[in-house]
Amino acid sequence: MGSVQSFRKLCDRPKNTNVRISLPAVCTVWQIAMIILFGIFIRYSIEADPHWIDYRKANNISSDIENDFYYRYPSFQDVHVMIYVGFGFLMTFLKRYSFGGVGFNFLISAFGFQWALLMQGWFHSLDYTDGKIKIGIENLINADFCVASCLIAYGAVLGKVSPVQLMVMTLFGITLYAVEEYIILNLIHAKDAGGSMVIHAFGAYYGLSISYMLYRPNLDQSSRLQGSLYHSDVFTMIGTLFLWMFWPSFNSAIANHGDGQLRAVINTYLSLAASVLTTVVISSLCNKHGKLDMVHIQNATLAGGVAVGTAAEFMLMPYGSLIVGFCCGVISTLGYVYVTPFLEKHLKIHDTCGVHNLHGMPAIVGGIVGAVTAACATESAYGTEGLISTFDFTGDFKNMTPAKQGGHQAAGLCVALCFGIGGGILVGAILRLPIWGDPADDNCFNDEVYWEVPEDEESIPPMIQYNNHMQRKDALASNFTLEHQDH
Amino acid sequence: MGSVQSFRKLCDRPKNTNVRISLPAVCTVWQIAMIILFGIFIRYSIEADPHWIDYRKANNISSDIENDFYYRYPSFQDVHVMIYVGFGFLMTFLKRYSFGGVGFNFLISAFGFQWALLMQGWFHSLDYTDGKIKIGIENLINADFCVASCLIAYGAVLGKVSPVQLMVMTLFGITLYAVEEYIILNLIHAKDAGGSMVIHAFGAYYGLSISYMLYRPNLDQSSRLQGSLYHSDVFTMIGTLFLWMFWPSFNSAIANHGDGQLRAVINTYLSLAASVLTTVVISSLCNKHGKLDMVHIQNATLAGGVAVGTAAEFMLMPYGSLIVGFCCGVISTLGYVYVTPFLEKHLKIHDTCGVHNLHGMPAIVGGIVGAVTAACATESAYGTEGLISTFDFTGDFKNMTPAKQGGHQAAGLCVALCFGIGGGILVGAILRLPIWGDPADDNCFNDEVYWEVPEDEESIPPMIQYNNHMQRKDALASNFTLEHQDH
Amino acid sequence: MGSVQSFRKLCDRPKNTNVRISLPAVCTVWQIAMIILFGIFIRYSIEADPHWIDYRKANNISSDIENDFYYRYPSFQDVHVMIYVGFGFLMTFLKRYSFGGVGFNFLISAFGFQWALLMQGWFHSLDYTDGKIKIGIENLINADFCVASCLIAYGAVLGKVSPVQLMVMTLFGITLYAVEEYIILNLIHAKDAGGSMVIHAFGAYYGLSISYMLYRPNLDQSSRLQGSLYHSDVFTMIGTLFLWMFWPSFNSAIANHGDGQLRAVINTYLSLAASVLTTVVISSLCNKHGKLDMVHIQNATLAGGVAVGTAAEFMLMPYGSLIVGFCCGVISTLGYVYVTPFLEKHLKIHDTCGVHNLHGMPAIVGGIVGAVTAACATESAYGTEGLISTFDFTGDFKNMTPAKQGGHQAAGLCVALCFGIGGGILVGAILRLPIWGDPADDNCFNDEVYWEVPEDEESIPPMIQYNNHMQRKDALASNFTLEHQDH
Question: Membrane-crossing residues (chains A, B, C) (predicted)?
């Protein structure tokens, strides 16, 4: 029976890839749903509301500059660039899937962002007095974070799914993320400023599980399109560099004001710098001529940022950050050389962008580093006030100790992994249905399936010549036509 | 007579495109004029002046952070990126006009910015005590805004004009903009934080009118160069994404401090997100295989930002922003499919980048949305203080009411359109003169006319081989040469 | 003897380019050294330390927003983009050295940044109470500045050296920079906010001297790879524009809070704008058809930013900035047309990116402008407080006068040049050793030496056809395979 179904599914495929009904239907319905839900639930936070002026007077807040907007907006814009240009261009490396890489990244981010505002709002920003979600700058940042986890997942299935499948994947991904985030941050009270666990661990294993469920035994039929081109590799470097440069903003965007944000920036930058060097080391060692592999430079150099996410605002110390980056550069690059082929061969997990190496493994390291750093926290290192504010030992958690906190951090990592794997298998099963218009095995990684692709470079040079030859002739010709019109 | 003239004009063209005298002459003279005018008129504002230190003490301003610089500089830099990278790369899509797209965009922005500082300064920042224009961070932002309107106009004539024509177009465009802006914002007292009317409506119709005046009946002779290439479309996505990501900064850059800026950011981001989804919907529906068209993704996704410009800092409400974005994504994409061909066929308006779809129509929607939102403003929604500060009901306009304001907004839109169309026809007439070195009909959209273009990709692979073959041979050869020199 | 050695060196070369041992060794050892040194010396500054919270209370600082982080972080991120994307993509113009341009730029920046934190820390941020270097946001900015000088030097030798040589060059470059910076800023007490002298003059002449020491008489053997491609020129514009746009942040990043930063921004932007126009003027005049040369637009347009670096925070006045930019656009473009060929032909200095035109000459102009502007400073122009704070006439320098300061500025320029030339000759001599695996003369500017380069564009179109032809056939085939597995 299963075989019959999968047989049908495959037979339908070549005809199926026309998403002219399904894609517009999904986008229209969901966007209208967003408008309705926003109308019912979403309002401006006090800081985005003109009443803020009266409010400030009442609470004698000295000045506009105290508005959280000025603490967080620059970081928000950096995160924003990471989501749309960073992730988008990181996925342009395939020789004929650059449109899909940057274009679908754009589509699902724009949708996911709206859905994330709602999902996270219900959990974190619901004003019980009037049942409305009050959004400010921090909600925008968190929504972009939430979207990031789905983009990581996209990296694992890049080129093998239809835009409709991506929309479904994002809808469920955002939902799972919001629940998982609430459990980890609020119930378990783990800290995760840069989202090593909440964003990267969840996103990577969510994507990998979906990729496992959608495994294509005959993917080698489109192997000819799986490589990169000289120029597409340069495009990818745009994505890599914007991710790398703005990662300090990513890890510090929602950290505590003042020293918390600055500390997160320092730790992240140092960790990233170290992983660049070790990536080069392993990449060169693994090539028999000592040549560097662009795939490693494009991805493994970012591992340090992932791994320092949780501990970014802790007292990891500068040398600690360097050590984390050092190790993750090594782990991540070795992952590209040995783990990715292993996963595909033995576990039937095809990982197009190697998210397991860039996000998966470093995220686990990051979770562990976070747990250890938290467990080792002391009043002498953080100061009395500092310890409380950094780990937020307030309210119900007044009696927490660093040691306990370490345990909670570890628990948080486990929850993230469970949600990622469990959710991925569930959603993967749904995406197996033969109704989503995904491409045939021999037509993956091919923009021509979902995009109008322009003619190729080949066709220019002759034209240019033609143009030069015809110049005088056409000029004369055109004169008569125009003169004719002037009468 | 007219026919004879146009006949001559056309005959001259092929010889004419040498701008070796005209371009340097224009740039040199105008740059020297700028230096002189800046010397006479432009000084630093108090906040950019070291006297600021004494001033602060006198006015006991608590701290440097109160300097407007820290409220606006991050937004300024985002706007800056939109002007040079955003607009610049958005115009690189043509297969052989990428140099002209990004290069001339760079040139006219750098000139326009200087001229805008003067023109806007005379109207808005003139210190009557000493007759000097005092410039600070807000002047820089407004000058970039002013430049934006000319870059929009450039989009309509991209590839069909000479750099000299562009300089003239910019000179007049900036001048008209400054007058129109003064009338709309100061005399009519319309609010337009994001410049839907002042920037986009004016810019689009200014460019379209010029394009109408410069209509080329035989443009199909260079149709072979009007298409895009796979990689040039990816370059264009860089422009699209930077415009899209930083649009919230564009609409909030000169909004009121604090809640005004934050509200503008939220509204703009939501509107943009919605237009991404509806652009995909229409793009897919309009293709018989349901395939997406890159042109739509590159442009129509931005319509939401244009349309929410005027109302960005009003209480549009999050769902209101989504509705605006939803509609404009639809309108703009349909514009690319149906309106652009119509304009060319029946109104003799050739619109290279489709600015009518991306800026023109959404700007009109934006003006109307702004008028309606203003007219519906209530004290309960804005708060007593909020209403006054948002709509600036102070000074001569102390007695304004929201209803009246709505009327003024509508009036503002009309003024913007009149200036755009009227000014465009005027300037277009000037640009028709046969002295500007514009390209022949069969040579439009071709960088070779104004740029030294490097050889083509074709020529590499053989070289590489050659290189490998010759390696040992050359190495030996070179040794002897060098040894010879050592004697 | 020398000839024998050089003969050996050349013979070895073709085998030598395998850096599989040397590159990983250097990166590993140096990164481990960094970790150890950071462990011994580097700690968080008070503003990045949680004790900050207690500290604030003690010193009743009103709010987190007073943290220097919020004054400088947006500028830091802009500088950061200039280092990695700006310089990186500026070096992608060569038709087959884009990987090396952006990739090695990435590697040496990541290493140089760490080493700079230590070197500059020892000179500027050492806390003598505990012998630790306390790093905050300003240290990060200064480290990026320090890296910039080495990237400028890289531009002179682009394509002709191995990554190992680059690492050595960076190690010594950073060291020299830190000493030179200490002498110029602290001992001589010259002001140099934008680093015209400290960064650009030093970096340019450091690189040029190295290039002189590594002169290759037979470089013409790889002349076929020295040109650019249409698309690689567009990539380079990404670098150019991000450098150009963010240069105001570069020159203002460490300027005085408030008016100092704003003034630096205004001066820099104006100077840059003027140099764009004059670059176009000269570029067009120097071409017999009046065509523009992309090389000039990509580089000379930035000269204005270099030249205004030292005087950026002085009262240069807006028109003064325009004049500086005007002159440097001319000088720099003429440099590309006449000076670069002269240097290569007569002084045996091959300057791949023309750093002498973009950084060298404008930096000297900048140093002189700075000296003159300082010497002409008056209390009436700066205000009593302003003069003292702008030139930091405090402590040991309480009795300085503007005239004296002018002299010190000039002295600073000389020191920078001496360190650049002297250091470059020294380091160049070291890099001549035949152990660094640099490429053969006929194999320079070729990524294939150090990178795994993907196949070429040529190979796609046939594949696409193949793909369409084979579609049905493969689809059927694949079904059976999968069904087979289902059993």
Answer: 21-42, 79-97, 104-123, 135-154, 166-185, 197-215, 227-246, 266-285, 297-316, 322-339, 410-431
pLDDT at A304 over 90: yes
C348: alpha, beta or left? (left if phi > 0; alpha if psi -120 to 50):
left
- What is the model's pLDDT at position C39? 96
Domain count, chain B: 1
Chain B contact set for A467 (CB, 8 A): 222, 224-225, 442-443, 446
B59 in a structural domain: yes
pLDDT in tens, B406-445: 999 999 999 999 999 999 999 999 999 988 889 999 889 9
Full strand arrangement of the beta sheet holding B126-127: B42-44, B132-135, B126-127
How far is residue C424's CA from residue C176's CA, in Å, rounded to a whole number?
10
Q: Indicate the helix (H) or strand (E) that contains C42.
A: strand C42-44
Q: What angle do CA A251, A255, A256 make, to 5 degrees?
A: 160
Kindly list the partner chains of chain C, i.e. chains with 3 or more CB atom pairs below 8 Å.
A, B
Query: Distance (Å, rounded) from C-alpha A308 to C-alpha B282?
Result: 42
DSSP-H helix ranges across B43-196: 51-58, 68-81, 87-90, 98-120, 137-157, 163-181
| pTM of full prediction above 0.90 | yes
Domain that holds residue A265: 14-446
Under DSSP, the state recorded for A91 is T
**ipTM, 2 decimals?**
0.90
How much is the CA Rg of chain A, to the nearest whole Å? Answer: 25
Report the CATH number at residue C176. Answer: 1.10.3430.10
Residues pairing with C135 in the sheet: C44
| Burial class of residue A57 (count of CB atoms within 10 Å of its CB; 0-12, 13-18, 19+) | exposed
Residue of chain B with shortest Cα separation from A462: B224
**Distance between CA atoms of B193 and B257, rounded to whole angstroms?**
12
Provide the token pair at B5: 């003239």
Dist. CA B310–CA B362, nearest whole Å: 11
Beta bridge partners, B127, equal B132
- Separation of alpha carbons A177 and A142, rounded Å: 11
Burial A66-86 (b: 16+ CB within 10 A, else e): bbbbbbbbbbbbbbbbbbbbb
**Which one, of C464, C273, C263, lies nearest residue C382 by Cα?**
C263
Contacts of C248 in chain B (CB under 8 A): 77
Q: Is residue C108 part of a domain?
A: yes
**Closest CB from A23, A63, A478 relative to B290:** A23
Would residue B44 count as lying in a domain?
yes
Identify whether A376 is part of a domain.
Answer: yes
